[in-house]
Amino acid sequence: MQISSIVGKAVNIELTQPLKVTFGEIKSIESLIIKITTDTGLVGYGEACPFEPVTGESIETEQAALNAMAKTIVGEDPFCIERLHSLMDSQTVGHTALKAGIDIALYDLLGKATGLPVYKLLGGNDNQVHTDITISIGEPRKMANEAVDYVSRGFSALKVKAGIDQESDEEAISEILNAVGDKAMVKVDANQGWNAKQTIRILNKFQNTQLQIVEQPLPYWQHEENKVIRNAITQDLMLDESVHAPSDAYTVISNGEADIVNIKLMKSAGIYGAEGINKVAEAAGVRCMIGCMAETRLGICAAVHFAAAHQNVAFCDLDSFLMFKEPDWLTGGFTNEGGLLTLSDKPGLGLDITI
Ligand SMILES: [Mg+2]
């Protein structure tokens, strides 16, 4: 089988309500849907969701890089995924979200050609995962009300965004913990917005509570202080922006900086890189979470397949699709009931896509 064409289509998806994080306020998202067609007529779909603060890509830079990369990829065998990553990497450094979109389409094709869902190709540990749900930064009382609402809708893990104003962060965490009691596990994601002293003080204040994980408190380049934090708190430290590739996972884990690593397909250049990060982490006794940028159901579905396939991917933060007015050209792949996501057993990603 040979790749006969690869195209990217930009789509705009509206959020049901705006999301506030340290990077700003998000009202709608733009993403690039990748379509790979083969000489047999088989088609694979992927998603390259750009997020400039983390991977430096925009729809425009993705499209320009895709135009250049298409010349290298067309004519290649889509099943030779390592070879294709090597070709992409030797042509251009970075561009991990674009590479993820291409990678996801290749796994979709591989599954469709073999008649297997992607999670079975990757290890097939299970066909279900539990995702947390994100509580956007807002007025603490409102955040606590949202938390209660999510718990009543079947979510047992909450991810609380923080990092803009510490006083307000502390108040929000406190209100949320009081409101949900023992009904949900709570993570706090400071998105690089705290320093080590602030992190230690805040986490120690909430010792022995349902606040069990702190995610990326420090700027991504600050490595040594992660160890200081780990030694001073009882909760687990998870790194997100500090880890893009398997080599980053190796660095932070061998330095003793992380209890958990947050993999995102858009950072790891897709499933192939995510596999590498998870293996490095698992070998060191470090668990993984899989998170997301603002992918549609397409990118999320690929992440669910990856997470379900592996025991060491112990946590999922795959909730972006729940915040969108989902388009009718993209359906299926998995069902969701509260935080429980169950994959379809259809070949490939199992999605129905009509663009
Ligand atoms: Mg994060």
From TrEMBL:
Any one GO molecular-function label of the UniProt entry: racemase and epimerase activity, acting on amino acids and derivatives
Active site positions: 161 (proton acceptor), 264 (proton acceptor)
Domain Mandelate racemase/muconate lactonizing enzyme C-terminal: 140-236
E.C. numbers: 5.1.1.-
Any one biological process term the GO annotation gives: peptide metabolic process
Organism: Lentilactobacillus rapi
Protein name: Dipeptide epimerase
Note on cofactor: Binds 1 Mg(2+) ion per subunit.
Superkingdom of origin organism: Bacteria
CDD domains named among the record's database cross-references: L-Ala-DL-Glu_epimerase
